[in-house]
Each structure stands twice: as C-alpha cells, then as structure tokens.
Design a protein that fits this description.
- Helix content is 47%, strand content 0%.
- By secondary structure, the protein is mostly helical.
- The longest helix is centred in the middle third of the chain and has 26 residues, at 52-77.
C-alpha cells in the first residue's frame, strides 16, 4: 500500500473566499464550521476519475476524528460548561456511535 504524506496545521491561512463559513455564521447560531481540506489523493486530477476506496477511507477517518473530538470536548469541558444540564442529548455519544455502527 502506498503511503501518502499528510500535513495537519492550526490557524493555517487559507486563501479561499470562505462562502460556507459566512453562510453558516449568518444563518445559524451556536454553530462551528471547521475549515477542512483534503489533498486530492482521492481522485485523478487530470481525468476527474474518483477512487472510491480512498474516498471511503477518508470519510471514515474524518467521521471518527469528529466524533472522538466531540466526545473529548464533552468529557473535558462539562465541568466548566454543564453540557448534560443544557442538553442531555450530548451527555454521552456512545449510544449514538453504537447506533451509527449498527446502521
């Protein structure tokens, strides 16, 4: 299996126009947009041919990272912000993850 070099950064300047970010901020309260880019290893840029297995792998990885990050935030921040009291649905993501895996 060929390995792909990856890069992760925080506060990296992106030179896009940020349309999605602006739209979400205008239309929805209490919403976080994570500007996420994926190197085009999931397709042939010259022909436009998609690599479905790579897309599936990236999708699973992003989903796992987002769920794990949300659970970590809930576990570490609830002392300073009572997430369970404010919204019991977010008190524990384990049932959500279990149901998602069953689907």
């Amino acid at each position: 299996m060929k390995r792909v070099q990856t890069d992760v950064s925080v506060n990296h300047i992106f030179f896009g126009r940020g349309y999605l970010l602006k739209l979400v901020q205008q239309e929805f309260n209490h919403t976080l947009v994570l500007a996420t880019e994926v190197k085009k290893v999931f397709m042939n840029e010259l022909t436009g041919e998609a690599y479905p297995l790579v897309i599936q792998s990236i999708s699973k990885g992003l989903k796992s990272a987002i769920i794990n990050n949300a659970q970590h935030y809930i576990n570490t921040k609830e002392a300073s912000y009572d997430v369970k009291r404010k919204n019991p649905a977010f008190s524990d993501l384990r049932p959500v993850i279990k149901l998602d895996k069953e689907l």
